[in-house]
């Protein structure tokens, strides 16, 4: 028997339905995975609301999970039943007890990393990896800004950036989240609900401003984030938690100092098998050496995914959240 959370229409958390679905079987090049834990990410909300469109409805959402290989299809030689694996990849479908995926999208888990930790860190951790090491290669001595610093990606990025030798400025919504971010490597937490983050960045940097801003918030922070950049700085817009960034005149980038702008995705940075494997290996390395600690601060039964979505959208979560099938 297999159950999944599916959506039959787009909307609020109430459209998430716990339903019995057919048990899948792996085709050529695929593996069947029994989930032990599923990751909760903001991209799940985008698919639920229709900001991102699933291939068809009804649809099972979710991008990230960890569990055990139950069976493999024809031609799969790198995996076998019983292997512990994790993934963070398209297509959607993680909110299920069992699912099939292409075997080359799965990575084997080191013994020291449990299923909940894996489900909590694959998407967020590999996102942090490509942002800090490839989209903009953070160097020792640089000062950077990370929005939503107490969130799942934010806490990982703060720790990893500190490990790379950067000074980290981070925005958060409360004093509690400021304390959490500071405990995870954020040198200068800014409570944006009462502080002007642009003014604080100018103060912290002595007017020099920043080489890079990492912005997963979107509409609310985008324009002021541009004003935090030094000439030739890079704006990395990698999420839309407050809504999509509206169209703007690209001449603004020239007027504000010949700025660069990118809208990267994990899918692009891990499209090649070798890049996926390298990203996961880099993540496993910093976690196992203790440079990055994964905080699983919320757990929900998978069937209660609607409540998990309400908590995430209500900014009532910190660190990572997992759903347990």
Describe this structure in words.
Keywords: NADP, Oxidoreductase. One of its GO terms (molecular function) is zinc ion binding. InterPro entries: ADH-like_C (IPR013149), ADH-like_N (IPR013154), ER (IPR020843), QOR-like (IPR047618), Quin_OxRdtase/zeta-crystal_CS (IPR002364). This is Quinone oxidoreductase. Residues 11-323 form the Enoyl reductase (ER) domain. By secondary structure, this protein is of the alpha/beta class. The chain has two domains: 2-122 and 267-324, Medium-chain alcohol dehydrogenases, catalytic domain (Quinone Oxidoreductase, Chain A, domain 1, Alpha-Beta Complex), CATH 3.90.180.10; 140-263, NAD(P)-binding Rossmann-like Domain (Rossmann fold, 3-Layer(aba) Sandwich). Helix content is 30%, strand content 27%. The protein has helices spanning 42-49, 115-135, 152-163, 175-183, 197-204, 222-226, 251-255, 266-269, 273-288, 305-313; strands spanning 2-7, 17-21, 30-39, 59-60, 64-72, 84-88, 98-102, 107-108, 143-146, 167-172, 188-191, 210-215, 229-237, 260-262, 296-301, 320-324. Strands 3, 5, 6, 7, 8, 15 and 16 form a seven-stranded mixed beta sheet that branches. It has a six-stranded parallel beta sheet with strand order 11-10-9-12-13-14, sandwiched between helices. Helix 2 (115-135) packs across helix 3 (152-163). The chain is globular and about 60 Å long.
